Amino acid sequence: MSSVKDVASLYQNLKTEWNKKPRKLDKCGELLNKIKIALTQFSFLPSNNAAANQKELILARDVLEIGAQWAVATKDVKAFERYISQLKCYYFDYKDHLPESSFMYQLLGLNLLFLLSQNRVAEFHTELERLPVDIIRADPYVRHPIALEQYLMEGSYNKIFLAKGNVPAVSYTLFMDTLLDTVRGEIAACIEKAYLSIPCSEAARRLNLQSQQAVLEYGKKRNWTLGNDNCYHFNAAEETSASNCGILPSSELAEQTIEYARHLEMIV
Fold this sequence. Notes:
single chain; mainly alpha; 14 helices; 71% helix; PCI_dom; 26S_Psome_Rpn12; proteasome
């Protein structure tokens, strides 16, 4: 059976590996697995021996915090979600028994960004309601996803693209990229519906793609048709039909408008 001392020794090894530059993520993963098995032998409910119990709780919390950051570094989204789910117990349920962690709001803010990137807006607001008002107003890690959610509601997509260069921590980049992909997909879907054709350069500008090659690769991924005029063409059948007609059926439109007016007059 592992003692607190044994787990603390493993944690120190993990912390040393995690702080190395560059990190050996495989080694960190192995140590995390060993520590998680050892931690299952501990009792994490507050007990009469407050000092010893607090050491166990802090040790477990610190391990889970590195685990959450490791999951982001390895792009293991499912593992990140599991680590955050466990950490919330220490952050909220045991808050009266533990000193506040310096990583708490960084990771809770990261979780808000994760939920936003997954379009889980209802859960985003549920988690936000658990945070103190002063933290919501002032903490940079929490303010960042809140601002992004506001930009999404406003449709200010350009501000979201600009926000990528202003993340509060490197760990935010993974979910920021996911959110940008989602936003870019929404813009692309709108382009497909709103235009019969659009210049390649204009598509790049609207999608916030920085090079000709990037927009060509994106267009290929969405099966867009690139014409010899260096424009993307959508709904080719509709475009051909419209060009063949040459003129709008103005007489038919006029007759329909007059008929609608007559019906409205009868109703009045």
